[in-house]
Amino acid sequence: MSPGPKNSITDVKGVRVGHCTLSFDDERGVAQTGVTAIWPADGDLVREPVPAGSFVLNGFGEITGRTAADEWGIASTPIVLTATMSVGIVYHAVQRYLCRQDSELGRLELVIPLVGECDDSFLNDSRAFHVKEEHVFAALDNATDTLVEEGCVGAGTGMQCFEFKGGIGSASRELGKADGGFMVGVLAQTNLGARPLLVIDGVPVGRALTDLMPEGKMPDYWGEGANGGSCIVIAATDAPLSNHQVAKLAKRAGLGLARIGSIGANCSGELTFAFSTANRVRAAGTLSHAIEVMNDRRTDAIYQAVIEATEEAVVNALFRAQTTVGRDGNILHALPVDRTLELLRENGRL
Predict the structure, then answer these.
(1) Which residue numbers are catalytic?
(2) Which positions ≥6 away from 134 have C-beta within 8 Å?
(3) Given 3-state DSSP classes, what are the helix, strand and coil percentages for the chain, each rounded to the nearest 5?
(4) Looking at the whole model, is its pTM more than 0.85?
(5) Which domains does the chain have, with CATH numbers?
(6) Are residues 36 and 234 in contact, defined by beta-carbon separation less than 8 angstroms?
(7) Which residue, among 113, 270, 261, has the nearest Cα to 188 in the 3D structure?
């Protein structure tokens, strides 16, 4: 399917993304970490939330607030991604940020922030707790609807991907007019996969790229062959979906991960979360409301779009990432792009 103009999640109107990147080695210690913030829509999310839903491919990971989002079928806060050991400070900071903007929060209204995580402790000194409140504020404030910066940025700064350097990736797909012309966008925080499983456009490139393996002691929980890690996928669309349909969209994103080589490994937290910018309703004050909902029998094109966009988002994270040295001299090497492209040419993909 055709990508949107920016080939980013920000092709869905109203969606904004911001990063705060922490990459240093000085008296403060070694940091390869950060924060990525996704605003699902403009306006007052607390009082006019967006339909939302999630899916757990494997649950060794977390998105805080997911239970409430699934129960009510809405997202009423920005979605913020970070490192596993920074979830607490990020959750607190999002509440502080929103309370500064809204005097009724914590009194007449309540928010349960959506904070997703992947572990970056192979490169980042997680015990130093580098992420602070101001870094979360910066990511939220810096969010724009421009082309999403990819690779070693924000929450992707310390991530691996199929034992190469990973990071943040994004992609979009635009449906044809016959299917409504809707947009589907994806942002992925990649931290998953064993090298031999890596597949790009159907070509098992990981079997051929056997060098440039990680240097350093791998986390025990990753398991043999580094199957573990995690991946958070955030999907957005402007199609008029119900919360039930949005949850089904989140589920299909897992098929995009499978295309790239995910097996939903036991020690890999692979969680997907989706929302629609259509069908926003007031959270309180009305007895009932009417919404426009797509015919379930016409949603297959949206499913295909999110699968393709998820697959490409992971590929884009790999192609944009750079070789990175982290704590204790640990190294994750970048995907050798020229060699990868040659493998794709040899197999008739380019």
Answers:
(1) 230, 268, 270
(2) none
(3) 30, 25, 40
(4) yes
(5) 9-346 (3.60.70.12)
(6) no
(7) 270
